[in-house]
């Protein structure tokens, strides 16, 4: 707004006998103020707000103010959102009679102006005197969950009431139509957005956002556990990629003494086993005999309590003879050290923190199976050339706290990551570090100090073809390899055995299979790096591996800080000079094949357009939570493409430069050009439709 216009507006106010009444008369008679954005009405209103601050004698009181408040209330439900706060402030609506305000909001609600009623309630802080279920139900039917979250944001009691209501609706026996029936004529009604699945996702989002005890929502938690139970049966009996001990650990942890889940466990056992097998597992999981069908109960009576739980299905475990098909740890078992005390840690510290050292780093945590909260790291693996250290993080943190030295472990880890003279090898390091920060808060921000880091996730899509040793007939039978396992197969000839990946890593003692799996996961990084350094050309990399990888740091949108901008020593400790990349420089050109993105909800058009140009694209469905984009980005090293409000939230969950906001008002083609220009993606004729069938 020009200075001249501002001055004219203020002179106008000074000439008016009653500026507050004058503004209302102006707004009521003008059609301009109802438009969006910074209209003339908006400019005049905000100038009056500033003018009143400079002239404290202007605000009115008494009957005259009440009449003005009544007029402005009638106007608020129609005015643009940016006028609400100035008008509420100018006409002191917070001082108006509360019952009068509640009555006005109730009138809006009865007219079907549900969104306006809720927004006004939030602005005037009327929520404690309202029925949370009544106010929020029509908004949920219109797919306005974000407004519902804002409505309860400052009121813990209302958060609990809302969560209990949503949990009641998520009971499998509850008929959703009982809720929707009174709102059949609702404008912008989206019944497809109002079902058990969507409501369940909303409950988990609210539980996490407001840090509420999940015990408040037993129906949703039970349903999530049931889905996990079905998933575990699939992994064990259909896919056959989970060991018996691993499976049993999770089943017992999930089912526990929950009668409802025990009933579903028995039904699943009967689908996948015979009665004798179901009886053995029921005994192992301590299912009460009265819950068992007669045939299973009879079999249970025949069993001896000391009987070992045997495999009772056709699930085909990989025998030891088949282990030769997988990557094998090349160091003896006695060189794997499981560390639980600080005395042991000090010896590890001395060996790891040596200049020129190359360290493979990996972490394990108990699978969350979609439950609330970030995973807490249960095991930190550090692999050196001749030995592997497995750090029992929960035990070590507990000890440090007991000794009053909480920061001791964090100090060691920060020294390791910030030392440019030590090369740290990882795979998807940024995701690991965010879990580490959730486990030990003193490590928050470690990724900003990282130096000397090589994230092999950056190599994943650059590695060409399979290694010469790769010849697996069994590959056709097994599940397709992915992630680190696939990279190990490409570079070293055999994939990782991932049967222990979904283990309960918090349970102690760890099984021998878990210890070997954890050590292999970290040690294989050393072998991959050494192999690529020796012979980069045969894998489609540049002749100087360090040069090839450092060059890709700014080019290839993978996990954060794939390589530090300084020198990265080779396994022998010799330093190879890599180009320095200044943050201010534009990114080097890359091809669409090297560019991996995940498109947030509502950007499917952009995603399809980029895929036609040869870009590696993952698309979110419109009902997916925005945070799923961050999970995929961290796990797979993708850049997030989003728009609007989710940008700020998503940007904070991934590395710098890993999230890009596009203009949602533009068409897919313009959005795509914006993305390609920003990341310097050079599209050739051969790239067009290269990913299409």
Summarize the helices and strands and which ones pair or pack:
Blueprint: H1 3-15, H2 19-29, H3 40-54, H4 62-76, H5 81-90, H6 98-110, H7 114-124, H8 132-141, H9 145-152, H10 156-169, H11 177-180, H12 196-210, H13 218-238, H14 244-255, H15 259-272, H16 275-284, H17 294-302, E1 336-339, H18 342-352, E2 358-365, E3 377-383, E4 388-391, H19 393-402, H20 408-418, E5 423-426, H21 429-439, E6 453-455, H22 457-460, H23 483-492, H24 512-534, H25 545-555, E7 568-569, E8 575-576, E9 596-599, H26 604-612, E10 616-619, H27 627-636, E11 639-642, H28 646-651, E12 659-661, H29 668-678
Parallel strand pairs: 1-4, 2-5, 5-6, 9-10, 9-11, 11-12
Antiparallel strand pairs: 2-3, 3-4, 7-8
Helix pairs in contact: 1-3, 2-3, 2-4, 3-5, 6-7, 7-8, 7-9, 8-9, 10-12, 13-14, 13-15, 15-16, 16-17, 23-24, 26-29
Characterization of the model:
It is a single chain. With 693 residues, the chain is of the alpha/beta class. Among the domains are: 220-304; 336-464 and 482-549, Nucleotidyltransferase, domain 5 (2-Layer Sandwich), CATH 3.30.420.10; 592-679, 3-Layer(aba) Sandwich (Rossmann fold). The protein is built from 29 helices and twelve strands. It has a six-stranded mixed sheet, with helices on both faces. It has a four-stranded parallel sheet with strand order 10-9-11-12, with helices on both faces. The protein has a two-stranded antiparallel sheet with strand order 7-8. Helix 23 crosses helix 24 (512-534). The longest helix is centred in the C-terminal third of the chain and has 23 residues, at 512-534. The chain is globular and about 95 Å long. The protein starts with a helix and ends in a 15-residue tail after the last helix. Mean pLDDT is 83; it is low at 308-319, 466-479 and 547-584. Pfam families: DNA_pol_A_exo1 (PF01612), Mut7-C (PF01927). Residues 565-575 have a biased composition (Polar residues).
